[in-house]
Design a protein that fits this description.
By secondary structure, the chain is mainly β. 14% of the residues lie in helices and 51% in strands. It has a 26-stranded mixed β-sheet that branches. The longest helix is centred in the N-terminal third of the chain and has 28 residues. The protein is elongated. The relative contact order is 0.04.
Length: 516
């Protein structure tokens, strides 16, 4: 009994010491030295090669009700973000329920001068052994912001093309483990160009229900019109509504630039045997909204129709994604793995006799063109194939027509490492009636190094006579290496068979003309 009694006394003493230590630490954080140590610790943890954080005075009751007088974030080019009057009020009782509850997250003023500049390449994301198709992040604790308020958010001209001053308010709740989301956000522009956007978003995994409601409007010369470079910068309104269970969800988007154009899109999600099928149908009157040549390429009646199947593990199947515009048609089908590192995609594109592209190639006529291709494999070993055909090129040109013939064909077969930029070209061929060109070999670092074998063959030089402006005859064959690097040298090997032509006006190297 004495041993038990002494053990309980010792345990009680240990608890008292721990509580005393916590109390002493809390009291020390309220002192000037403690506040300075906390600011230095946060600055050191947040700063790095591409970011420097500088904090002003920390006031209030740390850590549950504190105010940071000022904060600045800088990169290699100087300050790009500053903040004044940050107030954080935390509910201590919520921590016992594994929930971080911010009763208030407020700032008097935030200024973003420009986008940050990084000097280090982005680090690859760690491989996740268990992929999840959940719409929400799987957090170990719940997060709640009962009041979000920024009295003044100043955005620099470098971000939007003109300065803008906004006021932000809202609230949000995200349950731990992806258990649910409920959020509200309101953004008001409070400078000389008033506008507003209101968003409500909620997702309940237990009921598998998603609700979205977005309404945005701005007057002439606003941020949306300027960001999209809409001619005349007209007033813009955007609405997005969607509600229902994800087994049978429907939503609609309407965006209108007053007097310029209108975009509509309908989306639906339904459950099928392979997962969830997401369908999107979009179209509208867009030429007046677009600037320059883009308006002619899109045309008066563009359409996008897409069906994407999302598998339970997060993998994607495109069945297909199809686009129709004045320039032509295009489609994409295939699959993307759940980790987005393995692809199996095929695509097709076509431009017919009525394509808007004809008006942009006035110096070269053609009747129709089509292209198809595929990408398959992992990102570090991707097989890429391309076939493109252009028919009746320069049909009315007496010089070019014999060279092009009925069609000009391009073919590519290669393997690619997208991380290193290494490309192994198994076949690159351009075939026309007058000549054939080809290449094979390797390119490294997206063109930093190259080791290629090039070839050019013309079996009948007479087809080139009109283009050369003098009679030609015989055949031509050129082959040789092309290397790029510190010690790279290239010299083609030239062979001519039964080539006949008048003497050239000046000496020319063998690779520039056929030998007689």
């Amino acid at each position: 009994m004495k041993a038990v009694r002494y053990g309980l006394i010792g345990l009680a003493g240990l608890v008292v010491l721990l509580l005393a230590g916590v109390a002493a630490g809390y009291a020390w954080l309220q002192s000037a030295g403690g506040r300075q140590w906390l600011a230095s610790t946060i600055e050191g943890a947040a700063s790095g090669p591409d970011m420097t954080l500088t904090l002003g005075a920390i006031e209030g009751g740390i850590p549950f009700d504190l105010t940071v007088a000022s904060a600045e974030v800088a990169d290699s080019q100087g300050r790009w973000l500053s903040l004044q009057g940050l107030h954080i009020r935390l509910s201590p009782g919520a921590l016992l329920a594994r929930r971080v509850s911010l009763e208030a997250l407020e700032a008097a003023r935030i200024e973003v001068v420009r986008a940050p500049v990084g000097t280090r390449p982005p680090q690859p994301e760690p491989a996740d052994e268990r992929q999840s198709a959940s719409l929400l992040p799987q957090l170990p604790v719940g997060i709640e912001v009962r009041r979000l308020a920024v009295d003044e958010l100043r955005l620099g001209e470098a971000l939007l093309g003109e300065p803008a001053v906004l006021r932000i308010g809202g609230d949000a709740r995200l349950e731990r483990g992806g258990g649910g989301l409920d959020s509200h956000l309101r953004v008001d522009r409070i400078d000389d160009k008033p506008g507003q956007a209101v968003l409500a978003a909620a997702f309940d995994p237990a009921r598998n229900r998603l609700d979205l409601d977005l309404k945005a409007s701005e007057p002439e010369g606003g941020v949306i019109a300027r960001t999209l470079s809409i001619p005349g910068l007209p007033p813009v309104t955007v609405t997005l509504d969607g509600a229902g269970p994800l087994d049978d969800w429907k939503g609609a988007l309407v965006a209108e630039a007053q007097g310029r154009g209108r975009l509509t899109a309908d989306a639906a999600v339904r459950r099928i045997a392979d997962g969830h099928a997401v369908t999107l149908t979009a179209g509208g009157d867009l030429p007046a909204v677009l600037a320059g040549s883009s308006a002619a390429l899109v045309g008066p009646d563009p359409a996008l129709n897409a069906t994407v199947v999302v598998a339970p593990d997060g993998g994607l199947a495109l069945r297909p994604v199809a686009l129709r515009a004045a320039a032509g048609t295009a489609s994409l089908t295939g699959t993307v793995s759940a980790d987005h590192k393995r692809l199996a995609l095929t695509w097709e594109a076509a431009a017919g006799p009525d394509s808007a592209l004809h008006g942009m190639t006035s110096g070269l006529s053609w009747r129709e063109g089509m292209a198809s291709g595929s990408v398959e494999g992992t990102l570090d070993d991707l097989a890429v194939a391309l076939t493109a055909v252009l028919r009746d090129v320069a049909a009315g040109d007496a010089a070019l027509s014999p060279v092009a013939g009925p069609e000009v064909r391009l073919e590519l077969r290669s393997r690619m490492d997208t991380g290193k930029g290494d490309v192994r070209i198994g076949r690159l061929a351009l075939d026309a009636a007058g000549a054939k060109a080809g290449a094979e070999g390797q390119v490294g670092g997206w063109g930093q190094t190259a080791d290629l074998a090039l070839s050019l063959v013309a079996d009948d030089l007479s087809k080139l006579s009109a283009l050369a402006g003098r009679p030609l005859g015989g055949a031509l064959s050129l082959k040789g290496p092309v290397r790029r690097g510190a010690t790279a040298r290239s010299r083609p090997n030239c062979r001519a068979r039964r080539a006949t032509c008048p003497p050239a006006p000046r000496p020319m190297p063998c690779w520039a003309t056929a030998r007689r």
